């Protein structure tokens, strides 16, 4: 099985550098164009189906990819939604960082909870689509936590992920293994992540 975790297309809040989290912000026209452009790159490899988180920006990105690649949309998964940022949702990222430098935001979903949810989502996808090559449209912070949960590194050590970047996870000898991060081979990131392989 292969799962490509794809960050959704741009929204107006992305462009303004506002925290989205669980806020259901739609794609903007740039985000829709990004999804169409990404489909042409993804077409270089075979894929079987597209899934997404339940949030509108991920579902619309998935729908565009599915249409462009002539693939079925095989559901929306609550396990793939973005981290809940509690009272900070809608704030400028810079303002959030100034107000809560330790990320102790009231009502925020814990990092541990996101990592656990990510592993649950990967297991659910593997059970539902054994052996498939899956495009899973999710969210930037969620994807970094998913990669961290698989590799054993800190989510904060992973680089920011551009809209429509794809990070690939495959089965390994003991669970999942990170193959690429935003298109770059995982091995190329090991120094930045502390030098440990997954």
From TrEMBL:
Gene3D superfamilies: Phosphoglycerate mutase-like. SMART domains: PGAM (SM00855). It holds the Pfam family His_Phos_1. This is Histidine phosphatase family protein. It comes from Agromyces larvae.
């Amino acid at each position: 099985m292969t799962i490509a975790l794809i960050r959704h297309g741009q929204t107006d809040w992305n462009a303004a550098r506002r925290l989205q989290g669980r806020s259901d912000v739609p794609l903007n026209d740039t985000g829709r164009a990004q999804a169409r452009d990404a489909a042409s790159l993804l077409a270089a490899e075979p894929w079987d189906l597209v899934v997404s988180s339940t949030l509108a920006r991920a579902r619309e990105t998935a729908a565009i990819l599915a249409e462009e690649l002539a693939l079925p949309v095989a559901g929306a998964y609550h396990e793939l939604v973005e981290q809940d940022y509690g009272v900070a949702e809608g704030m400028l990222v810079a303002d959030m960082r100034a107000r809560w430098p330790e990320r102790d935001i009231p009502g925020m979903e814990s990092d541990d909870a996101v990592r656990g949810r990510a592993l649950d989502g990967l297991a659910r996808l593997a059970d539902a689509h054994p052996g498939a090559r899956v495009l899973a449209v999710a969210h930037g912070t969620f994807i970094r936590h998913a990669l961290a949960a698989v590799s054993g590194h800190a989510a904060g050590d992973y680089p920011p992920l551009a809209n429509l970047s794809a990070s690939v996870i495959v089965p390994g000898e003991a669970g999942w293994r990170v193959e690429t991060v935003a298109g770059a081979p995982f091995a190329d990131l090991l120094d930045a992540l502390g030098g440990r392989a997954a």
